[in-house]
Amino acid sequence: MERRNFLKGAALTAGAAATTTLAAPAVAQGKIDMVIVSTWPRDFPGLGIPAQRLAARIEELTDGEIKVQYFAAGERVGAFDSFDEVASGNAQGYIGAEYYWKGKHPGFAPYTSVPFGLTYTEMDSWIKYMGGQELWDELSAGFGIKAWAAGNTGVQMGGWFNKEINSADDLKGLEMRIPGLGGDVMAKLGASPVALPGGQIYENLVSGAIDATEWVGPFNDYFMKFYEAAKYYYWPGMHEPGSQLALGMNASWWGGLSKTHQNIIQAACNEENSRTMAETNANNGTYLQKLITENGV
């Protein structure tokens, strides 16, 4: 697909987002206010905690010059409403996965992951040195957003299933929570992809409203307790070889910051990007063993 065709939908579908954003950062008593809304529940191991850590780090590195208020999913807006909350200027930043916004423009999907796509190291190289950031900036600008990579969880597991999967035919008719282009692939195989925020997956799996779900990997999944409803856990996941996370900010707010504050936020994102991946790698093996030995997966 040509670059122009890839991006032209953004300007057409952004609506009023770019025209209703704040003109400059709100300043109170010499401090800049930054409200961050997240797609993850509070104190969520593997995803929520890194998001909280990034929010705190921005305030710390600016020596309190940027005053950050962090709201987990559902505390201010729903998880999937985070993008619009920031594009409108009601909040200054969101932390989440860009493929959640695939319905706004399919170009957002590659900035989380695509089936058989880039690994963590490849994604990092593409964004920083091979034009990925520039393309991301063009796409996001049409919606009044500026985004940075801010975390990665690596190769995902194939998912949790309430029955054994031996062939593609076993996927037919399954209700499976799986977002992004991975969901489109599963639909082609006969499954029914379902979009659910992380905080609603467990209850839907336990109740039988869905038959399967993907999430992240052993470290993250252990705390979700999916093993209480599904014992079949498959590896690896073709759908997300290197799942990128992001901090998206209101573009007008970002543009009104000093160069120093912009550089600090970018540095904080770079730090959390590598830290989340390191934390995931350090814990996946331990928690996979726990799932097997303690929970019979």
Q: Explain this structure to me?
A:
It contains ten helices and eleven strands. The strands form two sheets. Strands 1, 2, 3, 4, 5 and 11 form a six-stranded mixed sheet that branches. It has a five-stranded mixed sheet with strand order 8-7-9-6-10. It is of the alpha/beta class and 297 residues long. The chain has two domains: 21-154 and 243-284, 3-Layer(aba) Sandwich (D-Maltodextrin-Binding Protein, domain 2); 159-240, D-Maltodextrin-Binding Protein, domain 2 (3-Layer(aba) Sandwich), CATH 3.40.190.10. Helix 8 (218-224) packs across helix 10. It has helices at residues 3-13, 48-61, 82-87, 120-129, 132-141, 180-188, 201-207, 218-224, 251-255, 259-295; strands at 27-28, 31-38, 66-71, 93-96, 145-152, 159-161, 175-177, 192-194, 212-213, 232-234, 244-250. The radius of gyration is 19 Å and the shape is globular.
Order of helices and strands: HEEHEHEHHEEEHEHEHEEHH
- CATH topological fold name of the largest domain: D-Maltodextrin-Binding Protein, domain 2
CATH superfamily of the largest domain: Bacterial extracellular solute-binding protein, family 7
What is the strand tally?
Answer: 11
Task: Please state roughly what percent of the residues sit in beta strands, choosing from under 5%, 5-15%, 15-25%, 25-35%, 35-45% or over 45%.
Answer: 15-25%
- CATH class of the largest domain reads Alpha Beta
* Unreliable runs: 10-23
Helical residue percent? 25-40%
Helix run count: 10
Count of the domains? 2
Shape: globular
Overall structural class, as computed from helix and strand content, comes to alpha/beta
Kindly report the oligomeric state of this protein. single chain
Mean residue pLDDT: 92
Cα-atom Rg, whole angstroms?
A: 19 Å
Q: How can the largest sheet be summarized? A: 6 strands, mixed
| Annotated CATH architecture of the largest domain | 3-Layer(aba) Sandwich
Q: Report how far apart the termini are.
A: 42 Å
